[in-house]
Amino acid sequence: MTMEKEKQGLKKMTIADVAEALGVSKTTVSRVISGKGRIGSDTKERVLRYIEEHDYKPNVIAKGLAQNKTYNIGLILPGNHNFVDSSFFQQCMLGISEAAAAADYDMVVSMICDHDLTQLERLVLNNKVDGIILSRTLVEDAPAAYLKQRHMPFVVIGTSSDTDLIQIDHDHREACRELTSVLLMKGLHKVALIGGSREIVITNTRLQGYLDAFEEQELTVDSSLICLDADNGPMLERMVAEFVKKGAECILCMDDSICCQVLNTLKKNRISVPEDMRVASFYNSPLLENNLPAITSLHFDAAALGTVTCRTLLDHLEGKEVSKKTLLGYEVVLKESTK
Amino acid sequence: MTMEKEKQGLKKMTIADVAEALGVSKTTVSRVISGKGRIGSDTKERVLRYIEEHDYKPNVIAKGLAQNKTYNIGLILPGNHNFVDSSFFQQCMLGISEAAAAADYDMVVSMICDHDLTQLERLVLNNKVDGIILSRTLVEDAPAAYLKQRHMPFVVIGTSSDTDLIQIDHDHREACRELTSVLLMKGLHKVALIGGSREIVITNTRLQGYLDAFEEQELTVDSSLICLDADNGPMLERMVAEFVKKGAECILCMDDSICCQVLNTLKKNRISVPEDMRVASFYNSPLLENNLPAITSLHFDAAALGTVTCRTLLDHLEGKEVSKKTLLGYEVVLKESTK
DNA sequence: CTGAAAGCGCTTACAG
DNA sequence: CTGAAAGCGCTTACAG
Q1: CB of A29 closer than 8 Å to CB of A47
Q2: Protein A30 CA to nucleic acid D15 C1', in Å?
C-alpha cells in the first residue's frame, strides 16, 4: 500500500499502462475515455472500472497537444490597483474559475498595467490559452484590437461600441434608471449626479440611465446638478458645496470611491445624512459596507457575471452560436442614507 | 504581406519549418534556442536571425511535454470573499505574475472555498502546474497536507508552525511590536488590543508583537485590555464600551475590518477620535484609506511579497537551495488617529 | 467493434 | 559541432 503510493508519486500512470494491463490498445482506452466511437460494452466496462480503481487521470497537456488545444482560458485583469474594484474582480474570478473547472478548463491569469500589452502578447504568443476574457472594457481598447488582429477568440466583460465583440455585462443603464426613478418618486426632485471620467464606457452608461429616469417621469434635468470627470478631491469638494448651495436634495454617486469622498466632505461641513442631504451610490463595493448610515445603492452579482462570461467563451470556443451581447440583472438596495 | 499574415494565423510555424528553411536539423535549432550544447557560431547566428525575422515562438506546451514540465505555477486563492483582503491578494497576484512572466512561466489560479479541496485536487491531478503557491496559511492546513502527500512542490505565503514548509511572510511580529512600542513611548500606556480568531496564525503572531513591546519597555500588560476571537459586531461593541470604562487611551485593532467596526461604535457613542480615544490598526487595507481622521497603521508591500514568493518557488523548482523562512519588512505609518 | 501507425511540436541521449 | 531517431502521453484517420 505504502509502496504503491510511492510508485504513484514517482511515475504517473499513462494510457499505455492502462492499455497493457487490460490487454487492449491505447486507441480503445482513449476512445472509452473520450466517449467517441463505438466500443463493446464489456470492454468499455472493464476500462472504466480499471481507471476508476487505479485512479488514472489522463495527462491534459498531452491531450491538448494532440488536439491542438490547451484547455486553458486566459483572464486579463487590470494590474494597476483600483481598490474599489478589487472585490468585484475577486468575485468575478470565482465565477469564472468555477465555470472553467466544470468544463475541465483552467484559468491562467495575466495582469496588464496601463497600456503595456507585453503580458497579453506573451499569453497569446506562448499558445498557453484557447481563448481569453478581457475583464475591463476601454473606450479605446488596445487589448481587444490586438486579440482581434491575432485571431484569438475572446469575450469582454463590459460594454463596448464595437459590435464585433462578444460582450457580457450587468444592465447598468437600466439599473441606474431604476434607482434614480425610485428617488424621484420619493419626491426628491433635485437629484444631483457626480461621476468620473467620461473616457470610461460605464460613466456614460450610468449617465444615460439617470437621464432615462427623468425622461420617463417627464421631469426636466437640471444640468447644473450634473458633474462628470470629477476625478480629484478638491473638485469633488467644490461640487458638493455647489450642489448644497443649489438646493440639491440628494447626491447620486457613480461609484463608491466617489461616494466615500462625498461623504467625507459632507462630514467635514457638518451636513448630516440623511437629515440634511440624501446620498446614494450606483455601485456596491465593500468600501461603503460598514458606513453609518448605511448607503442606498445598486447591487450587482459579480460571481454570476463571471460564470456567464466563462460559459459564453467556452461555448464560443466549441463553435456554438453565442449572442453578441448579454445583459445581467441587478438589485436596488434601499438603506437609511436616502430615508 | 496580408497573405503572409493570413498564413501565420492559420498555421503556426514549428521548429521543423525553421530547420527546413535553414537546411539544418531540428536538433540544431532546438539547441540554439535552449542554449544547450555547442553549436558553430555561424549556424547559431543564422538560426537566431531567422527566428528573429520570422518571429518564431516555440510551442511551450510541446516543450513542456518533452521535458515533463508545464511552465505553469499554480496560485491558490481563498474563494470565500474576505473583502478586507481582496486588494492584498490583488497586489500579491501582480507581484507573482510579474515574477512568473519574467521566467516565462504562467500563473494558473484556482480558488478554494472553505474546506473544499476539489479544485486543488483538480489542479494537481491534471498536471497543469509544476509547483504551487498557497496564499493563506491555516493552523490546520489541509491544502498543505494534501500537497505534501502528493509530493507537489509548493511554498506558502504566511507563517506556519510546520517547519517543513517553505514560508514567505511579512514580519508581522516585529511590525506589531514596533507600532505598539511607538504608542507606548508616546505615553499611551493603556493600549487595548482587539483581534479576531485565534485559529488563524496571524492573530497569534500579532498578539506576540504587542506583548513584545510591553516586555521591551518593562511595562506590565493589563490582560483585561486584550480581547481576541472578537468576530461579531455585538461583541465588538461590548468590548469597546468595556475598554472605555477601563480608561483605555488607545485601541489597537488587528485588522481593518475590526477597526472599521470599532470606529463605527465610537461614532455611535459620540466618542471622538483622536480627542477622546486613539485608534490604530495592524493592517492597511483600502477600507480605511478615506477615513476621517486618517488612521495610523502598518504598511505592508503585498506586491513585493508576491514577487519574492514566486521567485522562491521557481528557485525551489530548479533545485536550488532556498531558505525555509523569508521575512519581509514593513512600515509604521503614523496618522492623526493617534495624535 | 478494435488496433497499428502516424502525428501533435518539442527534447535529448546516442553516435558520429 | 551536428543529426537521426526515439520519446513525452495523448488522438485520430485509416484499415480491418
Answers
A1: yes
A2: 18
Note whether A97 contacts B: Cβ–Cβ < 8 A.
yes
The DSSP letter of residue A338 is G
Instruction: Please tell me the distance from the alpha carbon of residue A175 to that of residue A194, in angstroms, as a whole number.
Output: 16
In which residue are the cell numbers 477622546 written?
Answer: B276
Nearest one of A180, A235, A233, A244 to A206, comparing CA atoms: A180
B110/A90 CB distance under 8 A: no
Cell triple for A21: 494491463
**Long-range Cβ contact pairs of A142-146 (< 8 A, separation 24 or more):** A142/A115, A142/A117, A143/A76, A143/A112, A143/A117, A146/A117, A146/A120, A146/A121
Residue A219 is placed in which grid cell?
A: 421631469
CA distances from A313 to A61, A75, A78, A150 (A): 20, 11, 19, 17
Pull the grid cell for residue B177.
Answer: 511590536
Q: What is the DSSP string of A231-259?
A: -SHHHHHHHHHHHHHTT-SEEEESSHHHH
Instruction: Give the amino acid at B125.
Output: L
Cis peptide before A143 (omega within 30 of 0): no
Q: What is the mean pLDDT of chain A?
A: 89
Residue B237 cell numbers, joined: 461593541
In the three-class reduction of DSSP (H, G, I as helix; E, B as strand; rest coil), residue A146 is classed as helix
Cell of B29: 535549432
Interface touch B125/A57, C-beta < 8 Å: yes
**Strand residues in A265-335 grouped as ranges (E):** 278-281, 296-299, 325-328, 331-333
| Cα–Cα dist A257/A277, whole Å | 18
User: Containing H/E element for B155?
Assistant: strand B154-157
Angle at B44 between CA B43 and CA B47, to 5 degrees: 85
CA–C1' nearest nucleotide, residue A40: C1
Q: Which residues pair with B76 in a beta bridge?
A: B110, B134
Query: For residue A111, which residues of chain B lie inside 8 Å, CB to CB?
Result: 93-94, 97-98
Asked if A156 contacts A144 with a C-beta cutoff of 8 angstroms, the reply is yes
Identify all chain A residues contacting B290, using CB atoms and an 8 Å cutoff.
Answer: 257, 260-261, 264, 287
Phi, psi of A14 (to 5 degrees): -115, 175
State the amino acid at position A69 in one-letter form: K
Optimal mutation site among B87, B270, B307, interface A, most CBs of chain A within 10 A = B87
The one-letter amino acid at A207? L
Chain segment A271-311, per-residue pLDDT in tens: 998 999 999 999 888 778 778 889 999 999 999 999 999 99
B27 touches strand D (CB under 7 A): yes
Coil/strand/helix, residue A154: strand
Integer Cα distance of B254 and B195 in angstroms: 5
- At B299, which helix (H) or strand (E)? strand B296-299
Terminal Cα distance for chain A, rounded: 68
Question: And the C-alpha cell for B97?
Answer: 505574475
Stated in angstroms, how far is B85 CA from D8 C1'?
41
Give A86-115 pLDDT, tens digit per residue. Answer: 788 889 999 999 999 999 999 999 998 878
**Residue at minimum CA to C1' distance from nucleotide D5:** B27
Give the contacts of B218 (CB within 8 A, at least 6 positions apart): none
Give me the pLDDT at residue A83, please: 61
Q: Do B110 and A107 touch (CB under 8 A)?
A: yes
Residues 6+ apart with CB under 8 A from A316: A131, A153, A155, A166, A322
